[in-house]
């Protein structure tokens, strides 16, 4: 019953849940599910799926009931990944889940499940790495950091950093997704932010950075020099935002890389499976 | 002397300590405090030598009353000396921690004046962090052998993990190279920490608010290749430490000659990195795969095969167990298949509940088929065209790029020289050649 139709949804998780609803109501599987800003053209009719809070709530409530609470969390995380065509993968996963019940979470060898699990693994790994590789700078008592992740990790980083610095005010700006996590004691928000300019570092901040660079340089045991090992643990795409690799005196971070991985979603979408 | 000089000297002096993990505790910051810890540990960066940097690893001071021959900080060594004040070090830690450079502090020290005084200084630093800053991040403290028991206890309440370095794998080596330390003086604090942790566990059951003593457990490290001790001896020692002292980790550090001494390998000798790697592999087999030291090595084979990892080696010597049916084999046996790790086993166990697995499926579950294919069957069938004899498997595994890699890193010609003082112990050349000849 794979339909020759493209769903166009509003880009929100609720919107995607409405697509799932639509797919069941019309007894069809869309050829693709695309967010509104996805400019690619395909030779298939398109249907606008309007976000309907009521439908979304029905689907949202049914997931923990029919497929289990674990699956509900899993799908939410899958929505944050950078998997091309993630929307359709999630839709297929949910359809499989409604049919199979909670055991779908264990069907790791199934292609639909496998693709999504891999993507979520990548998301989790990137989140974990960024918990370590993220670097704050202090400006007038507040902390600010910039990151360039491939997945949308801010919602997953938030609990970690809020539990770590409960009394600080801080901002984490995601250059690739144009969003920022803002925290002040006991209040968190993720807001869209197109451009965040950080001020010049003051004397104290410069000293802290210099101390850290000195520490980083000194801590290597030269007799064991092994840059390949370092790269495999810490891929170079993270270095751009890390203090120890920004040697220039002023300017807190290296400039954004031109190849924004957020654009990957705009690459021609190929519906392989 | 400014902070930069101090940091440089005291980092330089501490960096040969390998442990830099921040695992074992889960904790959020208290209200009004700063700092949390995650049980899995977090690496904050990786040094150019590929080692994880998780903690600010420094010495309180590198002035030392001892004269251990292998150590850069020994009394008789001409090197610049420095000393942090507790306040200075606490401020530096917080400054780094706020910027998310580190996960916490790894504090060790040379023995200044006497062990008790040194321990006092460390306690003062940790006290400032924990009580004044209400710091909830990770702290790893080195127990100073010879310090008073009450001081060790105080340190254990302030720190998350403690360690006493066993330094060398045998008593003879220790008395030769570290004349001021004895086996007893090292094992005593280790035993005290173990007893403290046990006592604390029962106390916690009785009184909920008992302060936790060394919640992330204790670890130790020893040097590999400074003395003629064999892998068999080292691994047995490690196993004993895990079993009898309840250690969380034993670290192995390939000895890198930093000082000229007739008792030690010459300066410029390359560190035995492959040997260290093999020991870590075996260590993992002990802790997560249900192997025992006696299974991996025995008095006839005292050293690891440089060309095949310990798990593969075991499998090749126990071909009667294989091939194993993936869809039916129990967990303990699956863990013994080369190419299947702990995560792989977990996924197989989950996935085979709903479907019968074939080789394509195994690949999706993250199994390294290149290795595992020789040891497993799926639905009763092997990969077609594979010869499943010990020799053919060995040849197939050795023909991979690892062979080149290993032979490049391993300079066997130098090995007897390096150990000449003790007579030709260490990896047998003949043995290696025999392996290559197959």
What does this structure look like?
The complex is a heterodimer of chains A (273) and B (438). Chain A has 273 residues and is α/β, with parallel strands linked by helices. Chain A folds into 2 domains: 120 residues, no CATH class; 131 residues, no CATH class. In chain A, 40% of the residues lie in helices and 13% in strands. Chain A is built from 8 helices and 8 strands. Chain A has a 5-stranded mixed β-sheet, with helices on one face. Chain A starts with 5 loop residues before the first strand and ends in a 40-residue tail after the last helix. Chain B has 438 residues and is α/β, with parallel strands linked by helices. Chain B is 41% helix and 9% strand. Chain B has 2 domains: 294 residues, Alpha-Beta Barrel (TIM Barrel); 100 residues, no CATH class. At the A-B interface, helix 5, helix 6, helix 7 and helix 8 of A face helix 1, strand 1, strand 2, helix 2 and helix 12 of B. Chain B: Keywords: Iron, Iron-sulfur, Metal-binding, S-adenosyl-L-methionine.
Short key terms for the protein model shown above:
heterodimer; A: alpha/beta; 2 domains; five-stranded mixed β-sheet; three-stranded parallel β-sheet; 8 helices; disordered C terminus; B: 438 residues; TIM Barrel; six-stranded parallel β-sheet; 10 strands; globular
Describe how the helices and strands are arranged.
The complex is a heterodimer of chains A (273) and B (438).
Chain A: E1 6-8, H1 13-25, E2 32-34, E3 46-48, H2 53-67, H3 69-78, H4 86-100, H5 111-133, E4 137-139, E5 142-147, H6 154-164, E6 170-174, E7 179-184, E8 187-192, H7 203-218, H8 227-233
Parallel strand pairs in A: 1-2, 1-3, 5-6
Antiparallel strand pairs in A: 4-5, 6-7, 7-8
Helix pairs in contact in A: 1-2, 1-4, 2-3, 4-5, 5-6
Chain B: H1 3-14, E1 45-46, E2 52-53, E3 55-59, H2 86-98, E4 104-108, H3 115-132, E5 138-142, H4 149-158, E6 161-163, H5 171-177, H6 183-206, E7 218-224, H7 231-245, E8 249-254, H8 273-288, H9 293-296, H10 310-317, E9 324-325, H11 331-334, H12 342-351, H13 359-364, H14 369-372, E10 376-377, H15 390-398, H16 402-409, H17 415-418, H18 429-437
Parallel strand pairs in B: 3-4, 4-5, 5-6, 6-7, 7-8, 9-10
Antiparallel strand pairs in B: 1-2
Protein name (chain A): DUF4130 domain-containing protein
Organism (chain A): Caproicibacter fermentans
Domain DUF4130 (chain A): 85-244
């Amino acid at each position: 019953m794979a339909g020759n139709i493209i769903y166009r949804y509003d880009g929100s998780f609720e919107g995607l849940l409405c697509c799932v609803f639509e797919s069941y109501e019309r007894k069809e599987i869309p050829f693709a599910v695309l967010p509104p800003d996805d400019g690619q053209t395909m030779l298939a009719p398109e249907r606008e799926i309007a976000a309907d809070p009521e439908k979304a709530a029905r689907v949202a409530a049914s997931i923990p009931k029919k497929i289990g609470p674990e699956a509900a969390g899993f799908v939410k995380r899958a929505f944050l990944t950078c998997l091309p065509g993630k929307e359709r993968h999630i839709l297929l996963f949910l359809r499989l889940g409604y049919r199979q019940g909670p055991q779908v979470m264990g069907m790791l060898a199934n292609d639909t499940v496998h693709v999504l699990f891999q993507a979520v693994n990548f998301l989790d790994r990137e989140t974990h790495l960024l918990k370590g590789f993220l670097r704050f700078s202090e400006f007038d008592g507040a902390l600010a950091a910039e990151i360039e992740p491939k997945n949308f990790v801010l919602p997953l980083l938030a609990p970690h950093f809020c539990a770590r610095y409960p009394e600080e005010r801080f901002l984490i700006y995601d250059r690739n997704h144009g969003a920022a996590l803002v925290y002040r004691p006991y209040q968190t928000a993720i807001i869209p932010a197109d451009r965040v300019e950080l001020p010049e570092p003051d004397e104290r901040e410069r000293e802290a950075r210099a101390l850290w660079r000195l520490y980083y340089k000194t801590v290597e045991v030269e007799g064991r020099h092994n840059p390949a090992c370092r790269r495999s643990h810490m891929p170079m795409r993270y270095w751009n935002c890390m203090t120890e690799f920004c040697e220039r005196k002023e300017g807190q971070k290296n400039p954004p890389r031109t190849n924004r991985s957020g654009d990957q979603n705009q690459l021609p979408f190929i519906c392989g499976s | 002397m400014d902070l930069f000089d101090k940091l440089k000297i005291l980092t330089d002096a501490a960096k040969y300590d390998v442990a830099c993990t921040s695992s074992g505790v889960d904790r959020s910051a208290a209200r009004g405090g700063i700092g949390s810890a995650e049980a899995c540990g977090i690496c904050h960066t990786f040094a150019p030598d590929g080692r994880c940097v998780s903690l600010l690893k420094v010495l309180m001071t590198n002035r030392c009353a001892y004269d251990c021959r292998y150590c850069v900080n020994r009394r008789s060594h001409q090197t610049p000396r420095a000393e942090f004040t507790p306040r200075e070090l606490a401020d530096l830690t917080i400054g780094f921690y706020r910027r998310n450079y580190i996960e916490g502090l790894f504090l060790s020290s040379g023995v200044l004046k006497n062990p008790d005084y040194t321990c006092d200084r460390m306690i003062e630093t940790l006290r400032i962090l924990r009580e004044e800053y209400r710091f909830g991040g990770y702290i790893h403290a080195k127990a100073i052998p010879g310090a008073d028991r009450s001081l060790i206890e105080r340190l254990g309440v302030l720190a998350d993990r403690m360690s006493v370095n066993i330094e060398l794998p045998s008593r003879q080596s220790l008395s030769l190279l570290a004349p001021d330390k004895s086996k007893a003086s090292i094992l005593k604090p280790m035993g005290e920490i173990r007893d403290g942790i046990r006592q604390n566990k029962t106390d916690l059951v009785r009184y909920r608010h008992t302060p936790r003593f060394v919640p992330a457990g204790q670890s130790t490290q020893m040097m590999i290749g400074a003395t003629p001790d064999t892998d068999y001896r080292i691994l047995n020692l490690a196993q004993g430490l895990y079993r009898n002292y309840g250690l969380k980790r034993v670290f192995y550090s390939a000895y890198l000659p930093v000082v000229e001494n007739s008792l030690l390998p010459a300066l410029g000798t390359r560190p035995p990195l492959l040997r260290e790697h093999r020991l870590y592999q075996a260590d993992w087999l002990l802790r997560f795969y249900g192997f025992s030291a006696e299974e991996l090595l025995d008095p006839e084979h005292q050293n690891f095969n440089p060309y095949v990892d310990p798990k593969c080696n075991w499998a090749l010597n126990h071909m009667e167990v294989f091939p194993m049916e993936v869809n039916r084999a129990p967990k303990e046996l699956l863990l013994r298949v080369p190419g299947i790790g702990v995560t792989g086993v977990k996924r197989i166990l989950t996935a085979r509940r709903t479907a019968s697995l074939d080789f394509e499926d195994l690949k999706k579950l993250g199994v390294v088929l290149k290795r595992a294919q020789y040891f497993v069957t799926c639905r009763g069938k092997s990969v077609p065209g594979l010869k499943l004899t010990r020799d053919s498997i060995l040849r197939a595994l050795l023909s991979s790029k690892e062979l080149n890699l290993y032979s490049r890193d391993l300079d066997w010609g130098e090995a007897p020289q390096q150990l000449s003082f003790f007579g030709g112990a260490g990896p047998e050349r003949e043995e290696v050649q025999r392996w290559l000849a197959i």
